[in-house]
Amino acid sequence: MSxxxxxxxxxxxxxxxxxxxxxxxKSLWVSFPNKxxxxxxxxxxxxxxLSELVLADRLGFDAIVVNEHHNTVYSxxxxxxxxxxxxxxxxxxxxxxxxxxxxxxMLPNRLAEEYAILxxxxxxxxxxxxxxxxxxxxxxNPVNPATAREKFKESLKIMLQAxxxxxxxxxxxxxxxxxxLNPWPRPFQRPHPPCYIVGTGSPETIEIAAExxxxxxSVFVTQQRARELNETLRQRASQYGHTLRPDQLPLQSWVxxxxxxxxxxxxxxxxxxxxxxxxxxxxPQFLAPPGYLSVDQLKQRAAMADKMHGGFDFDAVSKSFFxxxxxxxKVANQLxxxxxxxxxxxxxxxxxxxxxxxxxTVKNLTLMAEEVFPRLRARSAQxxxxxxxx
Amino acid sequence: xxxxxxxxxxxxxxxxxxxxxxxxEPVVFFxxxxxxxxxxxxEAWTDRFRVIVPYHPGFGESDDxxxxxxxxxxxxxxxxxxxxxxxxxxxxxxxxxxxxxxAKFACEHGHRVKKLGLIxxxxxxxxxxxxxxxxxxxxxxxxxLLVSDFEVLKRRLPEKPDLDFIGDRxxxxxxxxxxxxxxxxxxxxxxxxxxxxxxxxxxxxxxxxVIPVQQTETWRKFIPxxxxxxxxxxxxxxxxxxxxxxxxxxxxxx
Lengths: 390, 254
What we know:
Number of strands of chain B: 8
Shape of chain A: globular
Mean pLDDT of chain B: 96
Shape of chain B: globular
Radius of gyration of chain B: 17 Å
Distance between the termini of chain B: 26 Å
Low-confidence stretches of chain A: none
Helix content of chain A: 40-55%
Number of strands of chain A: 11
Strand order of the largest sheet of chain A: 8-7-4-3-2-1-11-9-10
Order of helices and strands of chain B: EEEEHEHEHHHEHEHH
Strand content of chain A: 5-15%
Structural class of chain A: alpha/beta
Largest sheet of chain B: 8 strands, mixed
Order of helices and strands of chain A: EHEHEHEHHEEEHEHEHHHHEHEHH
Strand content of chain B: 15-25%
Radius of gyration of chain A: 20 Å
Oligomer: heterodimer
Largest interface: A-B, 21 and 19 residues
Structural class of chain B: alpha/beta
């Protein structure tokens, strides 16, 4: 696994039928009125999005990635394990990544059970990411953001204990007491499905991943920050005696492939712009509920937010994030270069974004699989490049 | 130039800063759930009293203790601080969150509280006149809700919130969230209010946008003998907006 290059198809499943007056609302998260959800349209979207992920499997993507958000048009996957369960019988080869449910919003034994069920049903194709959850989720779920990190750590301990120790065992902690921790079923993969911590690279989450030897799936971080994050994580993990494999540090990239550069940009940029300007729109208050961040982190982020001004600028966004848009050759080169830079062979590719229509998603998935994969797979077979990646 | 002098006590490992001024019978003042309003108003009491203003852990100049996760941790903190300061019996005044804490302290340790002053106290669960859930309000909107006349508060705020100011407010909101995020109110708080047998004064601004002035009637039900004074045209920080409110509390304590 650590040697071969790997491609995931990630989908957010956004609700795209926004009312015309959506700009009147300060945030499309947390407080955006749910009266704007039309179940008829929602049904059609679920059908469509599931078909896109099934197609990704047929085309040869190595993994399908779903994740969890609440109270938002950004994602219709409030409970991603349900989506994963719907995918299991349809996705025949790809691994299924639930990246993931914040353990703080579930009883840890129940989350361990759900993941075990998915792993057994899929015959060991499940991968898990363990997020703290965005700040927004703490306004939507009755969980204290000020004690979230310690509760998160305790939940992880319980889940790992449930998977790795023969039950019944006990747990007497700060947030949970288990007199009989003995969940059925147990996971198909031993000792448990591959786990990643997912986050934006706060020192606290990096430390958790380092200590447990987990991978780290960074999201919404700039290229520079991702590089620093991976470097810090490798160093910290080695302090705990863990050596991270390249595939444990997936690189999240937004991808769009078309016949020409011009066409790719013409077909893609409007959706990327709406992703940043509309779907991801929230408030500083919702991003950072009290206690969710340390005061130092809060000040750092407030300082960063101050520096970002002006409208959407594709060139600037492309330079700071991992956004690969263009011909198959260009996208392959771009991803290959980033893989070397980040010392990873694992590309977590966002293949659908915002209100991108079905035809573009199908086109993107198809060109990626048929034109980009062979180029990068051929290169990764070359020993020199493989060595660089490892 | 402030009359107050600053002293530091370490209580169970938590650095606790206390400002004191004046001489006479001790009056302890518990500040509210934020510290932007300052405590210089209490200088008006220093001609008759030794005024003692501690910063609660997690606020202002005192250190944090993330293990303080319930109101009772603060009651115990003050029990130990007062012991350390050899304050046996004293007058206790609390504002808003500090009023909630003062009432809770006085319910449990009434023999140490000579007189109790509550300024727009929090803590009351009053479904018909609920307190604003301040944790749900965007930070930039909070100052405007605290007073009727914004000019009163404006001079205490930076012209444009800088990072330190934002960080300080976030820290104090974090302290409150540890205590109140899951359960902003404790239904058992009211059960023991009948223990407040000491002379008690409650003051309120009739334009309070944080805790409705109608809650005075609810307090009256629990503490029938309380001397309740309502000041017209004042908001939640009635002590900043109405000098008469501070004077009324001073006379009550004398």
